[in-house]
Amino acid sequence: MPHLPADLDRHVTELIASLCTVPAAQIAPTDRLREDLGLDSVSSMELLSLLAEELDLDIEVEEAMAVTTVEGTLEMARRHLAAATREAV
Amino acid sequence: MEAARASLGSAGAAADPGDDDGEVIAALTQGIDRFASARIDAARIDREGRIDRDLLAGLAELGLFGLSIDPAYGGAGLGLGAVCAAVAALSRHDRSVATTVGLHLGLGTRGLSAFGAAGLRERYLPGLAAGTTIAAFAATEPQAGSDLGAIATRAVSGAPGRLRVDGNKLYVTNGGLADVFTVVACAPGAGGARRGHSLLVLERGDRGLEVGAEERKLGLRGSSTTTLHLDGVDVGEERVIGEPGHGLDHLAHVLAWGRTAMAAGCVGAARSALGRAAEQVATRRQFGRALSSFEVVREQLADMAALAFAMEAMVEATAAVAGDHPALARASTLCKVFCSEAGWAIADLTVQLHGGSGFIEDTGVALLLRDARIPRIFEGANDVLRVHAGAAEVAGAGATGAGTGTAAGTATATATATATATATATATATATATATATATATATVTATATAMLAEAVGAAREIERRIAEYRDGLVAKHGVRLLSRQRTLHRLGSLAVWRAAALAATARAAADPRPESIAGCAHVVEMARRQAEALLGDPSDGGAIDVIARSLTGARA
Question: I need a labelling partner for B150 at 20 to 30 A (CA). Which of B268, B392, B460, B470 fits?
Answer without folding.
Answer: B392
